[in-house]
Design goal:
Largest sheet: 7 strands, mixed
Number of strands: 9
Strand content: 15-25%
Oligomer: single chain
CATH architecture of the largest domain: 3-Layer(aba) Sandwich
Shape: globular
CATH topology of the largest domain: Rossmann fold
Structural class: alpha/beta
Order of helices and strands: HEEEEHEHHHEEEE
Number of domains: 2
Radius of gyration: 20 Å
Length: about 220
C-alpha cells in the first residue's frame, strides 16, 4: 500500500509540474510581446541591472524603477521565465551576493532559462586582482574591504563568496556549461554601457582592474 501512495504522490506532483510549466509558457508568451528584443530577434536578460538601461535587454532587478521590466525580490529564482528562453544572460557583480550553499542552484537556474548554445556572461570581483591591491598598498585592509566584502550600505550589498578564474570556471563546468572564456567589455556585442565589468580602482596613483569577466555556453 505504501508504494502505491508514493507512486500516486509522484504522479500528482509530475502532473502539477507539467500544468505549471504550461501556464508559465502561456503567460510568458503574452508578456514577451511587450518586452525588448534585439533587431534580429534575440532575447537578452540583464539580471541585477540596477540603474543601467540598455534598450536591447530585458531588465530584471529587485528594486522598482521605470526601466525595470521584471521586478522580483529573488533575482536568482526566475520562476516566471520558461526554460530555453534566453539567448544571453548578463550578470555583473551579482553572483558574489549569493551564499556559497546556493551558488550551484543559481547557476543551474541560469542554465535552465538559456536556449541551447545560449551564453551566460558574468562579471565578478576577481580575488587575484584584490590580492594585488592588498600587496601593493602595504596590506591596507581599508582598500580591499569594499570590493571583497561589498559596500554594505543597504541590506542586499553584502558579499558571500570570492572568485578567481579557476574557481568560477570550475563552478560553471560543474553545472553544465561549456566553452568558458574571458570577455572584454570593449569588444563584445551587446555591451554599449559602462559598469563594473570595465571599472578600475585607483590607489597610490596606480589603476587596478577589479573584475573577472567570464562567458560560458549552454551545452546542448
Amino acid at each position: 500500500m505504501h508504494w502505491r501512495i508514493e507512486r500516486f504522490k509522484h504522479t500528482l506532483l509530475n502532473s502539477l509540474s507539467i500544468q505549471a510549466n504550461i501556464a508559465r509558457e502561456y503567460l510568458w508568451r503574452i508578456r514577451e510581446k511587450r518586452l525588448p528584443k534585439t533587431p534580429d530577434g534575440k532575447v537578452l536578460f540583464h539580471i541585477g541591472c540596477g540603474e543601467i538601461n540598455s534598450p536591447e535587454f530585458i531588465n530584471i532587478d529587485a528594486r522598482k524603477d521605470k526601466h525595470i521590466h521584471i521586478v522580483t525580490r529573488n533575482v536568482f529564482r526566475l520562476w516566471m521565465i520558461p526554460s530555453n528562453t534566453a539567448d544571453l544572460i548578463y550578470m555583473c557583480h551579482i553572483l558574489e551576493h549569493v551564499p556559497r550553499s546556493k551558488l550551484s542552484v543559481v547557476i543551474k537556474e541560469m542554465y535552465r532559462i538559456l536556449k541551447p548554445n545560449g551564453r551566460f556572461r558574468i562579471s565578478v570581483p576577481d580575488f587575484d586582482y584584490i590580492i594585488s591591491i592588498y600587496n601593493d598598498t602595504n596590506h591596507n585592509i581599508e582598500y580591499i574591504s569594499p570590493p571583497l566584502m561589498g559596500g554594505q550600505e543597504y541590506p542586499e550589498n553584502f558579499h558571500f563568496e570570492v572568485f578567481n578564474k579557476a574557481y568560477l570556471e570550475k563552478q560553471l563546468i560543474a553545472n553544465g556549461f561549456i566553452n568558458v572564456n574571458q570577455w572584454n567589455p570593449l569588444e563584445v556585442e551587446y555591451h554599449d554601457f559602462e559598469d563594473w565589468a570595465s571599472k578600475t580602482l585607483s590607489f597610490n596613483k596606480k589603476e587596478y582592474l577589479i573584475s573577472l569577466n567570464l562567458e560560458a555556453s549552454k551545452n546542448r
